[in-house]
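Lab meeting tomorrow. Please check the following:
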Amino acid sequence: MERANASRRAMMAALDLLGQRWNMRILFELRSGPLGFLELRRRTDDISSSVLATRLRTLVDARVLTKDSDGSYRLTEIGDELGPALEPLWQWAQRWNEDSDPTVRRT
C-alpha cells in the first residue's frame, strides 16, 4: 500500500507542477529546442519577467529544464519525455474542445 501512496503522491506533485500557470506554455515553447529568456518572454505573450524567472527556476529545480552555459533553457531528458506522455491528453483536449464548441454543427 505504501508504494501505491508514493505513486499517488508523485502523480499529484507532477500535476501540481504542470498546473502552475505558464509552466505548460513554457514547456510547449521549449519542445523544439533551447531558447533564451528574452525569446521565451516574447513567445509567452503576457507573462512578466519576474513570473517567467520564477517559473523557470521552478522547472529547473524540478529537473524538467536545465539552463545551458549560454543562458538558454532546454528540456532535460525527463522533461523531453513529457511530450509523448501528454500526447493522449492533448488529443483528448482537442476532441473535448471540438465537442464543447457550440458553433460546430453535429449531425
Observations:
- The chain has one domain: 21-100.
